[in-house]
Amino acid sequence: MKTTKLIACAFAFAVLAAAGCAPSAPDKPTWVDDVQPVMMANCVRCHGSPAAGGAPSTFRLDLYEDTLENGQQIRGAATMGRWICIRGSVAGDMPPNGSAIPTRARDIFQNWFGANCRGAEAPTVFERGTRAANAEPTITINTGNSKGDDTLELDYIVSDADRESVTGSLLLGEDSADAACKAAGGRVDLAPLPIHGGAGHVSFDTGTLCAGTYKLSASITDGTPGLTVARQLGTVTVEHPGGNLAPRVELVKPGPDALLNGKVAPITVEFTVHDGDGDYPVTYTVTAVKGDERDDLTPASASAGTPGQANTVPLNVQVPVDASKLTDSPSWRFEIAVKDAREARRQLVTPYVVVSSLDPASVAIRFNSGGGPEGKGILAVLGGCTDCHGGTLSVPDLDFDPSKPETYAPRLGVLYRKVIQKREMPPKSSKQLIGAAPDDVLTAENRELLRQWLLVGAPMN
Ligand code: HEC
Ligand code: HEC
């Protein structure tokens, strides 16, 4: 049966490739013509935005270049080229669970990066290519509806005729806003809202904006170098029939993935609040939330601002947290609810934080002493990571180098999530790239040392 199929195939190929007999991979594949279509067909359902199916959220494979999402650097396919090639062709274990990709697709990966994926260094081999006739992305938007006088709800459709992944944002910019409100420090701008290809929905919090007219515009790109499409989408009128502006609440800390340990430093939730029409005092509650569990953390006197005094600058509020109310867990969030003197309300939920009560006195390990392999501390625990981080296989644009203490500070939380909680590092590609399985690069024992070191605030000495 197999032979018959093969022969039939060879015949068909001679006439011109028929179904099942794809032409061989090009010697010099490009992203737009060859690699991206393979990604779209096999990888992007997990490695897109948001990441799905348990895939890491630190990179996406639908985009060629790196991007920023919520202030975090997200690596694109060009940066991840070597690893795409390894997992997609040499190891062949992506997509997971046995659904291997066609041989031609594997060849495309290898020709794109270099034989066995270990070839020449990036980036020259990662050809992006250009489409002879690139179709610009387009956006259409419905007229939008206001929910009460509080939010502007918009549905959009972003299309790209040649199926590239589109990223961008929607922006409300001031056209002419109420002068008195502005003078009192009222808000006339909102952060741009991210949009993506396909159909989507965004919601602008116009309840905190000074009354007036605002211009709605979009900025989108399909990744073609130098191409950003700007579109004016009309004017929006913001009115506050009740005459009351909602208070504006912004988080100061904790940031995403913060590691909090009440025995290392007092835990506080810090935010700013500003009421555009001066309805002070504002009152607030802070609640710690984990799954179904809720704990009220608000101190006895929970208000800010003096009645009748219009503050032109936002007030800073710090709420001390009773750490004994929080069990050890990586999935706490804080819910901040604020209402102004006329009862207009706003609420904010912080990103997830890691809470621990591990006693620092019980943890001996330091950055370069106090235990670990040969008593050399975390530096030696992470010794196996240096081939890829700081070494010859270094990831472009990734400046985490285990031997440099200064590169840790912004990544303690990322290290915890990626290495301890989700176990994405060391990656499975370690085996092919540095000849050591992930469990040998970082043993269970060393992972535990890293966990403890992180949870007591990563002491240096
Ligand atoms: C069903 C979801 C899913 C699909 C589809 C999928 N992946 Fe993954 N991918 C994962 C998960 C989960 C991980 C993290 C665990 C791991 O490394 O195995 C991962 C990790 C990776 C990594 C980083 C880990 C390393 O070893 O460096 C790369 C690179 C990767 N995938 C490439 C691909 C490519 C290329 C495709 C398409 C050919 C693909 N993936 C399709 C789920 C998926
Ligand atoms: C085989 C190569 C390889 C090894 C070994 C390796 N990494 Fe990575 N690491 C990567 C790649 C590729 C990325 C970028 C893709 C991703 O985020 O999954 C990455 C990303 C990371 C990030 C995210 C950094 C950021 O700013 O987003 C951290 C943290 C990290 N690695 C820690 C480690 C630690 C700790 C070890 C050792 C225990 C280790 N890695 C070993 C290849 C490697």
Structure description:
With 461 residues, the chain is of the alpha+beta class. It folds into four domains: 22-117, no CATH class; 138-238, Sandwich (Immunoglobulin-like); 248-351, Immunoglobulin-like (Sandwich), CATH 2.60.40; 360-455, no CATH class. The chain is 19% helix and 26% strand. The protein has ten helices and 20 strands. The strands form five sheets. Strands 12, 14, 15, 16, 18, 19 and 20 form a seven-stranded mixed sheet that branches. Strands 3, 4, 5 and 8 form a four-stranded antiparallel sheet that branches. Strand 18 (329-339) and strand 19 (345-349) form a beta hairpin. Mean pLDDT is 86; it is low at 1-19. The chain binds heme C (2 copies). Residues 42-43, 45-47, 53-56, 80, 83-84, 87-88, 94-96, 101, 424, 427-429 line the site of one heme C.
Secondary structure layout:
Layout: H1 2-15, H2 31-42, E1 67-69, E2 72-74, H3 81-90, H4 103-113, E3 138-141, E4 145-147, E5 151-159, E6 167-177, H5 179-183, E7 193-196, E8 198-204, E9 212-221, E10 229-238, E11 248-253, E12 259-261, E13 268-274, E14 282-290, E15 293-296, E16 303-304, E17 315-320, E18 329-339, E19 345-349, E20 353-356, H6 377-381, H7 412-421, H8 430-434, H9 438-441, H10 444-455
Parallel strand pairs: 12-20
Antiparallel strand pairs: 1-2, 3-5, 4-5, 5-8, 6-7, 6-9, 9-10, 11-13, 13-17, 14-15, 14-16, 14-18, 18-19, 18-20
Bound molecules: heme C (HEC) (2 copies).
